Fold this protein.
Amino acid sequence: MRRIVLFISFLFIPFFIIAEAQDWNIFKSTHFLVYYDKAGQEQLERLTQRAEEYYNAITDDFGFTRFNFWTWDDRAKIYLFDSQEEYMNATGTPAWSGGQAMASSKVIRTFITAPDFLENILPHEMGHIIFREMMGFDNPAVPLWLEEGVATYQEKQRAPGVKKYLAGRIKDGSFMGLSGLESFDLANSKDREKVELFYLESYSLLNYLISEFGKDRFVLFCQNLRDYKDLTRALALTYSFSGREELESSWRARILQ
Ligand SMILES: [Zn+2]
């Protein structure tokens, strides 16, 4: 089963206070503070080693310029719960969630046994933070599919056959499409299959933009979206799509190719 993660930018402040109130041990690396209870030394070393690798790789990969260096008091915080139950109790997240990021405070919360933690959840959640540092924390024009697409794009292990699976969804009429993605209430959905489809389509759309038009253009698109705070305008300026409909139809055509 593919692991799924949840991104929440500003909610759950009460839970955050609960999480902080717990008595944590702290493990430090150059750019990270790991708050843990029972995790072992080796586990913590492996975790911070991978996190340090992703710290540079994600930024370089997207050609984003880093303005905020995560050092000293500004280090990212990773709360590592011992079990999914403790994680869910503290965060209030649905059972499908394997991790959570709060970008503006650079906090990631997850649990030791989360599936594919080092390969997928960690880079996914870090992707959220780095992306938001570039885009601005309060830019309402950033759609959730883009946010989750960028984060999912960072994952190292991907289930094979996504394109074929989505082509089947288009043919049987259960494909969400752009408007479905935009109206989907991810944070409150308990429908695991729908949530999974949301992530797959978000990834697919992001992957379409990057593989079809290149990374430089994608970075330019992000910059336009950051500066103009208008998705339609950013699409038109960067890709010459007249609007969402044209983006959607060419994306669908690519999946069906
Ligand atoms: Zn996410």
About this structure: Strands lie at 4-7, 25-28, 32-36, 76-81, 97-102, 107-111. The chain is about 55% helix and 10% strand.
